[in-house]
Amino acid sequence: MLILFYTNLLSWYQSIIKILTPLSPLPKDFSVSCNLVLCFIILFSFSSCRLLGCVYAYDNIDVGSKLNEFNFAVAGDFGCGDDANKTIETMVSKKPEVVLALGDLAYKKNPNCWFDMIMPLENNSKFKISFGEHDLSHGFGTYNQYLKHFNLTKPYYSFDYGNVHFLAMTTPKNTLIPYNDKSDQYQFVQDDLKSAHENKSINWIIVYTFRPFYS
């Protein structure tokens, strides 16, 4: 899979970007007739979640093949106030099958207020998280509450929904949960992307995390 990035990389983030380097080159006669799969990277920056364009990947999928359709909602920087309630109400109204929460979730040492707020989404959809700065700033007690609530054994993980592969990375504090090229997380992400790329039943790959890959 070849991933083409359209903006400059942050120098401190180059170790993670290595994971997303080409696995195979594009053919010289690459054109619209080639088989394509669109691979989105969902990024979270400061107080907003952004879908920063897209990156294109070459794969062996028939252009005319029909992709399974479903809705998924993405947001981050919640807290437990009125704005967070409005965001969650809007997400509920869209009836998503998958929800991605991109970090800075409760902003509190005890995240139960946020767990209560997202209950309508958890009842009707697959709810997944990534960790932000504020989710780790209260120590591992709060961090472990998130792991337990979402039945996670590690803060980085992946899952499939239909023909879409989702990969969650944890990037807020490299000193607590490393993501450099010597870390367990780096190896997991590298192996996971390779496996998803080779899985012929996967047409889309979505990577989501807290820190931006781009400046």
Topology, please?
Elements: H1 14-17, E1 36-39, E2 41-45, E3 48-51, E4 55-58, E5 72-75, H2 82-93, E6 98-101, H3 112-117, H4 119-124, E7 126-129, H5 133-136, H6 140-149, E8 157-161, E9 164-168, H7 184-198, E10 204-208
Parallel strand pairs: 2-10, 5-6, 6-7, 9-10
Antiparallel strand pairs: 1-4, 2-3, 8-9
In DSSP terms (H or I, runs of 4 or more residues), the helix count works out at 7
Gyration radius (Cα, Å) is 18 Å
Cα-to-Cα separation, first versus last residue = 24 Å
Whole-number mean pLDDT: 75
Strand order of the largest sheet: 3-2-10-9-8
Give the domain tally: 1
Largest sheet: 5 strands, mixed
Number of strands: 10
Helix content: 25-40%
Instruction: Indicate the low-confidence ranges by residue numbers.
Output: 1-17, 19-65
Give me the secondary-structure category: alpha/beta
Can you write the helix and strand succession as a string? HEEEEEHEHHEHHEEHE
Globally, the shape reads: globular
Relative strand content? 15-25%
Structural summary, described in words:
The chain has helices spanning 14-17, 82-93, 112-117, 119-124, 133-136, 140-149, 184-198; strands at 36-39, 41-45, 48-51, 55-58, 72-75, 98-101, 126-129, 157-161, 164-168, 204-208. 27% of the residues lie in helices and 20% in strands. It is globular, with a radius of gyration of 18 Å. The strands form 3 sheets. Strands 3-2-10-9-8 form a 5-stranded mixed beta sheet, with helices on one face. A 3-stranded parallel beta sheet has the order 5-6-7. The chain is of the alpha/beta class. The chain is built from 7 helices and 10 strands. The chain has one domain (11-23, 35-58, 70-176, 185-208). The model is unreliable at 1-17 and 19-65 (pLDDT under 50). β8 (157-161) and β9 (164-168) form a beta hairpin.
